[in-house]
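[scheduler] slot 2 assigned
[scheduler] job type: sequence-to-structure, two independent chains
[scheduler] chain ordering preserved from manifest
[runner] begin chain α
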Amino acid sequence: MDFNKLTHIIEGSLDGTPLDEILYLAEKTCPSIDLGLLQEVHSDLTSFFSGSCPDFKKNTLPYHNLRHSQLVVLASARLFHGLHCSHVRIRPEILFKGLLAAYFHDTGMLLQQDDPTRSGTKYMANHEARSILFLSKYAAQKGFKEDISRDCATIINYTDLESDPATFDYHPHEIQLAGQVIGSADLLAQMADRYYLECLPLLFNEQETGGVNQHKSARELMEHTEKFYHNVVLKRLTTTFSKTSQAMQAHFWERYKIDRNLYIENIDNNINYLNNIIAKCDGIDCLERHLKRIPPKTT
């Protein structure tokens, strides 16, 4: 299969849009799920990020943007579908809670209309708590049952890189699995993105402005990316999240008859290319000359 077709597959745009694919996989996983409600959530989150909702200002963060959130939801839907294909029972309530948490997991960096802060990076540290607050308000406005807010809060906390789910308050195995799915999807969707390398300087700028950066420069962040993947990401995927990400291969086989985990392949390709250009470049200008893809503009 050619590179362009694989790219369209992983971005959910082969036969439509990411939303089309999310809805298709949700129905395949749980035929009784309310697709209209999922569409409503998708539309509402789009309005939050675009600023068309009166409660929020338009998002200006170039890395933690709407596209990232939607790709995390897509990766989550794929993992749920892969688990279903592996004969793991996914109830529609759990699927909805997981996807709802995925949609909201980074909303904590959005600015409210009356917020005097100029950038959402102010809320980058511990933004998960603010995301949970926004989801709780949204769930109340929609009249959702109380357990949706409670369980989605737990699921969102799985996306916190500093978190240890073993220390969380007791929650059912189904919510644990949903948390492992969303936590895995958040990591996979970012690092497998075809624009991931081009976005690393944008991530550095966000972290620096938000006061959470652990690197002196964008180049240093790039140099440490491979170590971050092997020491942090893979540890969470395999140990913290119990290898739930392996369900991605079952999804791609069932959906496209591709017996591969395209996310892990893309991550490996990104890191290999990054290492190659780091070895030949002394400065960030040289690195940027080798990173020619222009990330799509999105809110």
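[runner] end chain α
[runner] begin chain β
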Amino acid sequence: MRFLNPKTDFAFKKIFGSLQSKDVLISFLNALLYEGRPTIEDLEIIDPYQAPQLKGMKDTFLDVKATISEGKTVIIEMQVLNVLGFEKRVLYNAAKAFSIQLDSGEAYARLTPVIALTITDFEMFPDSLEVISRYGLREHNRLTTYSDDIELVFVELPKFSKSLDELETITDRWIYFLQQADTLETVPSGWQDIEPLKKAFEIAELSNLSREELDVFQRKQIFLQDSQNAVLKGIEQGIEQGIERGERRKAEAIAKALLDVLDLETISEKTGLSVDAIAALK
């Protein structure tokens, strides 16, 4: 068997955001938000499009959006590339999901909490070892809670290093599923007894896709690989340029030290800089 890569937006939405995914999403959210406790017993998957409230405001599209117990809203985004301003986009989407609950004239007391669950295939917080981190509104010094109305939850997949044999909890299994599903050839032993995980693999099985779905998935995979390669190439070029700039600064420093000792032509031979460049250092 071969499975979809859950980290692509097409696969993620199909596995967790389709009409058949309700029980899958409940298990997934309980695992990542509530350490596997059955806090969420029911939910409603809703349209992930967040329309602008005012003309000219930015449209936003989420991967999955749902309402859970006590009217809370959960918005979910799977992000593979660390694009510029992504951390602000997370906050913007959470604030927007909170604010668009009210129509004109409705009381603020009707607002219900929003949880923004963000799963990244890169490290958001390099200084922390935590795979799952949570952020809320707190007082700066005493760290007392101002409100739980907006909560940001991050799952950083690169920080999860457990092997299949080391998985202990349902949380471990769901994170491993996101990381490794497309590399597996069979559903792991014992996972068939966990109905939501079993169903997630069934939805993700490539042989169950229609011809149109397979075409969309393949195009998404190609786009993702091209985007990742472009980012890596940009990083490599940046490193090379940094080395070149560093070498030039080193050569200029040597040239400056030799200005009162040697003539310009000799300094040029020693450092590789042009005579004009050395003259400019004066």
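[runner] end chain β
[qc] chain β: The mean pLDDT is 84.
[scheduler] slot 2 released
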